[in-house]
Automatic annotation (TrEMBL):
This is NAD(P)-dependent alcohol dehydrogenase. Residues 11-343 form the Enoyl reductase (ER) domain. InterPro entries: ADH-like_C (IPR013149), ADH-like_N (IPR013154), ADH_Zn_CS (IPR002328), ER (IPR020843), GroES-like_sf (IPR011032), NAD(P)-bd_dom_sf (IPR036291), SDH-like (IPR045306). The lineage of its organism: Bacteria, Bacillati, Bacillota, Clostridia, Eubacteriales. Belongs to the zinc-containing alcohol dehydrogenase family. Keywords: Metal-binding, Oxidoreductase, Zinc. GO terms for molecular function: oxidoreductase activity, acting on the CH-OH group of donors, NAD or NADP as acceptor; zinc ion binding. It comes from the Bacteria.
Length: 347
């Protein structure tokens, strides 16, 4: 075969299934037959709005960066893989030479090529090529759906590291979407104590409960009121904002104990927000931003293969590539019933 099918984003809210050439495998690359792709919130923003902040889609474009599949072919310099291997694809290809890369923070690479981030094409196609060092073998008995989940789990692992979560820490997470649930799993796996999570969507809170978290519906009563006694007793060590809600930062400043830490995981819905600076200073809170992840995929594969959480519950809908537009419309319009939608390009 010389061509493959791909879901091409041709304009806002419009995808077309087109035949495009199968990419040639470079000397240091592997050709992957894509078996499962998770739909991320960033994909939905690019699909429906055409941009995230100042990052605008250049049409035609291919979305998708949570990918797993089967090695189809390898370049002549490749030593780690052979055809038939099952792999998870780390979608951010760093240059390796800029100051950030040399400092070991390759997720901040100045020349990062991130799949689905314009203008780099993503995973919603039957085949893709990727550098050998950004491809990771998964167990043959791991589902490709769990293989695709390694990407959001990597975000959660990086969040745990940024927040310096310690054994027995009590953690409060704002937002019970896919990243919030992934954070529950990562926090539990590192030995933290009680994990609490708040949201306004009952279906998501119920799933978070099944992941082992203590849940709070904040649609009517703020979390500060519901946790007033624990806040007063300095019992919340770490806060994680995963929903991208600007007020979530202020909420965590209120809730986290003096000397605690906060990590901002979600993509913010606004560039600026009112912040209680006085509390931030007098409580001496450590605050970290988070941008994707680095050096997380091996641990992410371990986590995805574990029983620390019922990960398969997250896969709420499944679509073939032909229905990629429907999948993104559902993710956009039905957040209450959609957790992680999976698209199967080779079904």
């Amino acid at each position: 075969m010389k061509t493959m099918k791909a879901a091409i984003l041709t304009k806002q809210n419009t995808m077309e299934i087109q035949e495009i050439p199968i990419p040639e495998c470079g000397d240091d690359e592997v050709l992957v037959k894509v078996m499962a792709v998770g739909v991320c919130g960033s994909d939905v923003h690019f699909f429906s709005e055409g941009h995230i902040g100042d990052d605008y889609v250049q049409y035609p474009h291919i979305l998708g960066h949570e990918g797993a599949g089967i090695v189809e072919a390898v370049g002549k310099n490749v030593t780690k893989f052979q055809p038939g291997d099952h792999v998870a694809v780390e979608p951010g290809i760093a240059c390796g030479f800029c100051p950030a890369c040399k400092a070991g923070k390759y997720n901040l690479c100045e020349k990062m090529q991130f799949m689905s981030g314009p203008p780099v094409w993503g995973c919603l196609r039957q085949y893709l090529t990727i550098r050998e060092d950004f491809c990771f073998q998964i167990p043959m008995d791991m589902s490709f759906e769990r293989g695709s989940l390694v990407e959001p789990l990597s975000v959660a692992i990086h969040a745990v590291r940024q927040a310096r979560v310690k054994p027995n820490d009590r953690v409060l997470i704002v937002g019970a979407g896919p990243i919030g649930l992934s954070c529950i799993a990562a926090v539990k796996d590192c030995g933290a104590g009680e994990v609490m999570i708040c949201d306004t969507i009952p279906q998501r809170l119920e799933m978070a409960r099944q992941f082992g978290a203590r849940v709070f519906d904040v649609s009517k009563v703020p979390i500060q009121e519901q946790l007033a006694d624990e806040i007063a007793a300095d019992q919340i060590d770490v806060g994680m904002e995963t929903a991208g809600i600007v007020s979530g930062f202020g909420t965590l400043i209120d809730c986290v104990k003096r000397g605690g830490s906060i990590v901002l995981v979600g993509c913010p819905s606004a560039d600026t927000a009112p912040i209680p600076i006085g509390k931030l200073v007098t409580k001496e809170l450590m605050v970290n931003g988070l941008f994707r992840y680095r050096n997380t995929y091996p641990y992410g594969i371990h986590l995805a293969a574990s029983d620390v959480a019922p990960f398969d519950l997250m896969f709420t809908q499944s679509f073939p590539l032909a229905d990629a537009q429907k999948a993104h419309e559902m993710a956009r319009d039905d957040k209450a019933n959609c957790m992680k939608i999976i698209i199967h390009p080779n079904e």
